[in-house]
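Re: the multi-chain job from yesterday

Posting the exact lines I submitted so nobody has to dig through the queue logs.
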Amino acid sequence: MQDLDRYLNEQQARHEDELCALLRIPSISAGGAHQAAIRQAAEWVANRLRRLGLPAELLETSSNPVVYAASPPVAGAPTVLVYGHYDVQPPDPLDEWLSPPFEPARRDGNIYARGATDDKGQLLTHIQSAEAWLQTAGRLPVQLKFLIEGAEETGSAGLDEFVAQESRRLACDVVVISDSSQFAPGQPAITYGLKGLAYFELRLTGPHQDLHSGSFGGAVTNPVNCAAHMMASLMNKSGKIRVPGFYDDVVPLTKRERRQLAALPFDESEFMQQIGVDGVTGERGYTTLERRWARPTCDINGIWGGYQGDGAKTVLPAKAGVKFSFRLVPNQDPAQIAQALEAYLASQCPPGIRMELTCMHSAPGIVVPLDSPYMQAATRAIEQGFGRAPVFTREGGSIPVVNLFRAQLGVDTLLLGWGLDDDNAHSPNEKFSLLDFQRGTKASAHLWSELGQITVGDR
Amino acid sequence: MQDLDRYLNEQQARHEDELCALLRIPSISAGGAHQAAIRQAAEWVANRLRRLGLPAELLETSSNPVVYAASPPVAGAPTVLVYGHYDVQPPDPLDEWLSPPFEPARRDGNIYARGATDDKGQLLTHIQSAEAWLQTAGRLPVQLKFLIEGAEETGSAGLDEFVAQESRRLACDVVVISDSSQFAPGQPAITYGLKGLAYFELRLTGPHQDLHSGSFGGAVTNPVNCAAHMMASLMNKSGKIRVPGFYDDVVPLTKRERRQLAALPFDESEFMQQIGVDGVTGERGYTTLERRWARPTCDINGIWGGYQGDGAKTVLPAKAGVKFSFRLVPNQDPAQIAQALEAYLASQCPPGIRMELTCMHSAPGIVVPLDSPYMQAATRAIEQGFGRAPVFTREGGSIPVVNLFRAQLGVDTLLLGWGLDDDNAHSPNEKFSLLDFQRGTKASAHLWSELGQITVGDR
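And the result, structure tokens for all chains:
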């Protein structure tokens, strides 16, 4: 393994240049206006894999192409599916970026660009580690299958059908995904729990056009007033969700889990300072970490209606729109939640307003067993890559493919996050630590060796 | 008066062409991006008055110029101040206009353009009627002073100071304003009551930037969630306002007024059809007309925050903004309302959110006595102009200058509306009936003669 570590150290500069090249491609999947960049990013990843000598292909889906490549089988050793995504979130609000989102900039040990941590930087670590094995040992200790998709940020449209159709080709013993965060700088974590997601858009329509708020106000139902009331009716001020039955299937936190979470070195005042607030709120009876990782939540992601320009326009708007989403935990069923939500909102919708509710995407929450040999192997690999044993955490974010792989391939997923909570994923000034980029690659290289120790029967 | 009526009939085509010329000028006062058009409209009105032989001037204010012109005094007869405004509302949403807002289009007896009814068409009727007197009788039976401002749609900035400074020059016995509506097509009205206005912008700031709603949702106060809760807390679902003390000074409707309003031929199902809703809501215990004209209300005029684009962005927004306004009735004090509002919203603002509340403009409500000789004169003039006696109504809209003239000049205002409720003031496809344009001009010509019968002492 010394040769391997030495090789990785020598390649660091090239690895960073390659990351910058991928980050320059504005592969935004939302809105559908960036098809050329999407395809360019897919081609870039495929070519990168071909340089390892792997026969990489672009496989079409009903949305953006998937990049796929596999190394030769290794008898008796596990087959590992490495999943990542080459698409990114929209960069707006643009004026809050210190350097342009698609012009990677190195500052204080980080690389700043949209997609740096989510997920271009993290997915590259696994390609680089495989390359290191092939360059130094001439072979990989496990069979690797790379599945890099391009629609993750918009709900992985088309991936379900793709994985269902290609389940034989994708057959594996375990999945590895690096698309999450360490617990703290230098304190790696293995994420064993993920929240699910149910994302909705609500459109409210009142009068057939905007009206004078003086002539009609108070007598005609105002869709924006109504949007405020309907959203407020979804949750109380401390974030408790009021949709009937919403909590019925929630698996409560165990005493052991709450102890484990409470034991983590989490400094709330530091957390508040980091995000720039003088206080936090949330569901009563739960800590900030429990709210973030293990309790269902509801956030309005966007709202609009009426006059947003300068000055004062005395208008009663004809329409209002809201994007909002629930974060779900095991065993909440997104389909049941959507049904209960629609019935509840319909009951809240007053005369004179037409409502239209669309579920934009959804996935259940999941928890992965802590005691599998794969989890043990990952623990050792991370200790060698980062020089420190990982803690076991949960995530507020959602990775629907983890559910997909469980359902379609019957395997668990190792969620090995190389990022940091303050990497600004989905925000302006997204970044990835160059040190973590290096440590993640090293941990990945050791992961292939640790997983190679596990004996599996042939399939 | 026959000569006068004949002259007006002959001039109708020219009057319409002149209206179109004025409507082509996009004199939008909101946002401040249309200074050239504002000045062009002011010059157009001044030149129009000069063609009557009146020495019209542009008088600068702290915002847009006022057009002023006066005819010679008439001994023993009243001096009448005619007020109007040459500025207009922004035309957005543009895509809902059937013809461009600043390209006047004649359709089914109406002229369609932004400002057609509010207020370019209505103000022109008084200039045309004065011209008719001068062309036929060679003189006016009263002294007319024209005060046409250019910032009414943004709260008449600078007009208070102007009227205070120029109170001697503007001295008069009564003010005439046509900037409101008939009760129904062909059923003219005199508006004896107006609502006041208190218009606010609320800015809420949470984290110093947008956050990932998965990693932070439920643990960090979401400014858009908070905006929904704060707005919902302002009023209940039926529109009753919850700000403590809000109703303390409200002058209740008298039994006589409620009878009078109930007697008006108002068809609620027709009203709902007109605005395109299948039901209406509002303050319990009051009729639709009472809600519109005589009860205080609260409308959100605009709201924004987070992601408004296509697709789904799982973001916890850093900021939210709301424009909202209360419509006030006698004797509510806008300053007291603003104070109570700020205290109330502050009490509703949760930890982790910074709030900033700006009062953008305000005016108290007003009711004008029904029994003054000026009101009687207006009643007779309208009967002659429209062939039908007016009904007496109130308005949900606000005309702050009515308060200004009462305070600074000590006079009442005659609100003689030639428009219609479905003229789409402040909405797409604003229009003005060409027949009402003609009837309003005729009523105005008779008004000068009726007012001329009133004897007043010299000032």
